[in-house]
Write a structure and sequence with these properties.
The complex is a heterodimer of chains A (about 325) and B (about 350). Chain A is mainly alpha-helical and about 325 residues long. Chain A has one domain (about 50-315): Orthogonal Bundle (ABC transporter involved in vitamin B12 uptake, BtuC). Chain A contains 14 helices and no strands. Chain A has helices at about 1-15, 20-25, 35-65, 80-90, 100-120, 130-155, 160-165, 175-190, 195-200, 205-210, 215-240, 245-255, 260-285, 295-310. In chain A, helix 4 packs parallel to helix 6. The longest helix of chain A is centred in the N-terminal third of the chain and has 35 residues, at about 35-65. Chain A is globular. The relative contact order of chain A is 0.18. With about 350 residues, chain B is mostly helical. The two termini of chain B are about 40 Å apart. The interface between A and B is large, with 51 and 44 residues. Chain B: Keywords: Cell membrane, Membrane, Transmembrane, Transmembrane helix, Transport.
């Protein structure tokens, strides 16, 4: 797994112009200050992508398993949007610009959005309908990003500060933000990974799981906390990014089958790979400019959503 | 066997009253909107400014403000709002689902893709952008339909496929815009969020004219649509060819959406909400087209007034409608869930 992650970082850097040269430079001494600057930008960015990818993928895997909903993921269900909105508010209204300051807003936003979407999407039906949940998430995301957009246009001063929170970007997100969020995300990952066994049991049904000695409440609470921290942390770094958390767990399940332990572990590896790939694509598609990576993930991930909804069997997790 | 194929619905007073009230409310809002702006006018002043040129030969300043500056935009809001609402009503009837409106299913975004492509390739001429919008809208409609088709088109699958296609097209739109030369991109991005900032009659009239020209098509599709509402089997036993009719209604709806999108950009929410609000107001079983049109006109004009006045800087009306529309969608989901309980 570690080897794969390493390869993905290398692949992530190579397609970039001068990539081959830079790779050598990164391995040896950075002689040229120009190239060194590029590396200084690119390496933090790749690290950010890896962290965000891992967090989103594991959050998606947890959500899908917990809600038994194959369409669940932080982006589609509006958790990322809620988190990004809270950060945008922290910046625009309270003037907080340090990552250490707004990470708490991000977590709070993620939690509120999770509850709100669950209430809107599942209210009164007893069972939670996957499609209704997605609609609720999409509606919530539309409202929140609309408000951010309106704020951005009404006060161009905040233009640059808010753009990330509208579409999801990795450009210019420095190492400082990632490092601030990283401990929290690592902690959440440590909580999430051991949950695989109890999630496996939960998949057999609540009653059976309870009789097998799995604490339903404890598993759910831990999983929701982990999802909140992972999705919120990812959004604090890169803004709302959809579809990564959707695609990765499905790919993992495709390889590993229904065993949640392996789905979680594989998600942890595939997430960074996909995210770095999307970020490289974001830079290559409109070279020498670049696209917000959130849009690239939509471009790649939307067909997966269409495929999933067409496969009726996939809807019953 | 029955001699008549179509039993006319008895005209009850409620729809008529509601219709008249909607028309009056829209008219009042128009007067209010005409008076709003940097040069505020009272409703009485607006009315005298409207009739001013008829009475005297030399129009005064307020007449110029009202007739030349504000009326074009407001006309656009009313006509476009009505067109979007009718398109929404057609789609919702077709999919038998309150969520089946062009903005949710992604036709608006597709039409916008067409507009951007036309602008980038041909420059921003009216014919090019309108053609691009129609082609883009129809292409997206076809794509979404084909992708959602699996032994028939089921409402919710259509919507999720629409959401996916919308997300992808949204990305494609930004991609083209970022790739395009700055100048072209700017002119295409101006109405990227849906804006009514048309300034003069020469901008508004062609668009309004084309939308009005589509009216006969709408009227032609009303009767078969009512038959379809009764169910496919009933409709075909009444001599309606179900699939061609469905395609025609689809075409008309896409056409209306595309025409509006070509001039004003993708404006969400009106097509989604107006027909449902109209249906609730009129308490009818089907979706009433006239009431929908009036409600749509009222909503878009109101949203545009909010967009211009609510914040320090005017924002595109599309942003207001997205916020309202998302909130409305949440409400729809909640009330839908309550009903199922």
């Amino acid at each position: 797994m570690a080897a794969l992650a390493l390869i993905s970082v290398a692949v992530g850097s190579r397609p970039v112009p001068l990539g081959a040269v830079l790779e050598i430079l990164a391995g040896g001494e950075a002689a040229d200050s120009d190239h060194h600057a590029v590396m200084g930008l690119r390496v933090p960015r790749t690290i950010a992508a890896a962290v965000v990818g891992a967090a989103l993928a594991v959050a998606g895997a947890l959500m899908q398993s917990l809600t038994r909903n194959p369409l669940a993921e932080p982006g589609l269900l509006g958790v990322s949007a809620g988190s990004a909105f809270a950060v945008a508010m922290a910046i625009a209204v309270f003037g907080i610009t340090s990552a250490a300051g707004y990470i708490w807003f991000a977590l709070f936003g993620a939690l509120v959005a999770t509850v709100a979407v669950a209430l809107i999407g599942g209210m009164g039906t007893g069972r939670i309908d996957p499609i209704r949940l997605v609609l609720a998430g999409v509606a919530l995301s539309a409202v929140l990003s609309g408000i951010i957009g309106a704020l951005r246009l009404s006060d161009p001063q905040t233009f640059n500060a808010l753009q990330v929170w509208e579409a999801g970007m990795l450009a210019g997100r420095g190492l400082e933000i990632t490092l601030t969020v990283l401990p929290l995300i690592l902690l959440a990952l440590l909580v999430a990974l051991p949950l695989g066994t109890s999630l496996n049991t939960l998949a057999m049904g609540d009653e059976l799981a309870a009789s097998l000695g799995v604490s339903l409440v404890r598993t759910r609470v831990l999983a929701i906390l982990a999802i909140t921290v992972l999705a919120g942390g990812a959004a604090a770094i890169a803004g709302p990014i959809a579809f990564i958390g959707l695609m990765v767990p499905h790919a993992a399940r495709w390889i590993a089958g229904a065993d949640q332990r392996w789905v979680l572990r594989l998600s942890l590896v595939f997430g960074p790979v996909l995210m770095i790939f999307a970020d490289v694509l974001a830079r290559l598609l409109v070279w020498p400019g670049e696209m917000p990576v959130g849009l690239v993930s939509a471009l790649v991930g939307a067909p997966v959503l269409v495929l999933l909804i067409r496969r009726r069997k996939a809807l019953r997790l | 066997m029955l001699t008549t194929h179509h039993t006319p619905t008895p005209i009850t007073s409620r729809p008529v009253v509601v219709g008249a009230a909607l028309a009056a409310a829209t008219a009042a809002l128009v007067v209010l909107a005409l008076g709003m702006g940097d040069y505020p006018l009272s409703p009485a002043e607006v009315l005298s400014a409207l009739v001013g040129p008829l009475v005297s030969d030399s129009p005064d300043f307020s007449s110029t403000v009202v007739l030349e500056w504000r009326l074009p935009r407001i006309t656009a809001a009313v006509v476009f709002g009505a067109a979007l609402a009718v398109a929404g009503a057609l789609f919702q009837t077709l999919t038998r689902n309150p969520l089946g409106s062009p903005d949710i299913i992604g036709f608006s975004t597709g039409a916008y893709t067409g507009v951007i492509l036309a602008t980038v390739v041909f420059g921003g001429a009216f014919v090019g952008t309108t053609g691009g919008a129609i082609l883009g809208g129809l292409g997206t409609a076809l794509l979404v339909y084909l992708l959602a088709y699996r032994k028939g088109v089921q409402g919710y699958r259509l919507i999720i496929v629409g959401i996916g296609v919308t997300a992808a097209l949204h990305a494609v739109n930004s991609w083209i815009l970022i790739r395009a030369e700055t100048e072209v991109a700017m002119s295409a991005a101006i109405w990227g969020a849906g804006s009514l900032s048309l300034t003069s009659w020469s901008d508004v009239l062609p668009a309004v004219g084309v939308v009005l020209a589509a009216l006969p098509l709408v009227l032609a599709s009303v009767r078969p649509m009512r038959q379809l509402e009764l169910g496919d089997d009933v409709a075909s036993s009444h001599g309606v060819k179900v699939e061609p009719t469905r395609l025609m209604i689809l075409g008309v709806g896409v056409l209306l959406t595309a025409l509006v999108t070509a001039t004003a950009g993708p404006i969400a929410f009106v097509a989604l909400a107006a027909p449902q609000i109209a249906r609730r107001l009129a308490r009818s079983t089907g979706i009433p087209l006239t009431h929908s049109a009036l409600t749509g006109a009222f909503l878009l004009l109101g949203a545009d007034m909010v967009a211009q006045q609510a914040l320090a800087q005017p924002i595109p009306v599309g942003m207001v409608t997205v916020i309202l529309g998302g909130a409305y969608l949440c409400f729809l989901l909640v009330s839908d869930g309550r009903r199922e309980r």
